[in-house]
Amino acid sequence: MSQSNFSDADKAFFKDGYKMAMEATKDPNDQQQFLSVVKQQYQAMDGLIDALSAQAARQQVNIDCRKGCYWCCHQPIYGISHEFVYLWKYLQEKYSEEELKPILSQAFNNYQKRGRLKDQELLSSKAPCPLLKDGACMAYDARPMACRIYLSMSEKSCRTFYDNPNDPSNHPALLEFPLRAGQMMNEGFNKGLKMASIKGREFLMEEGLLIAHNNGEAISDEDISKNPLFNVND
Length: 234
What we know:
Layout: H1 8-24, H2 31-58, E1 78-80, H3 81-94, H4 97-114, H5 119-124, E2 132-133, E3 136-137, H6 145-148, H7 155-163, H8 176-195, E4 202-204, H9 205-213
Antiparallel strand pairs: 1-4, 2-3
């Protein structure tokens, strides 16, 4: 993505993400520092969203997102390598191996279907996120940026898009600013990783979880660049 097309706000969020990545990779062998900075990135975005939500309320603009509303959780969800490192660590700490099995099973089943779809077919596909359970996210605190910045002003528009994904006139009524801010912060973070010779890339949720699982084999906490999520060919 060319930075020549960035607005001043774009540049600011990109720079924030870049600086965070440089801080995260000061010592490639310090995975705790890496995870801590990813958490800081999410906290920064959550703070921005809280401020936007408060402003929206003052201006009587609805934000219909709430626990138990999960139409968006059936859409293809994307994340970047560092997000799946953080997400998988969270899942391992919170759930037992037995509790992780249905998550991985759903991820495998979804990817068997979605991994073969062409772009437009993929965008229109609907399947429950592997982390969706009883209408809520099992890893809400560690969810990827794409989930955090998806703020709808109309649950009805999300339901309509869920019911009729192939109708080009159907679009969820989303707030644009957090979408762009989160995208730019992630772009900057990924750029910072590349400057540290750590190659991140984008994955579907299902693929990212399966790679993070690493066929059940242990992943060394030493040298974050050796994590399989950073060693997948495009």
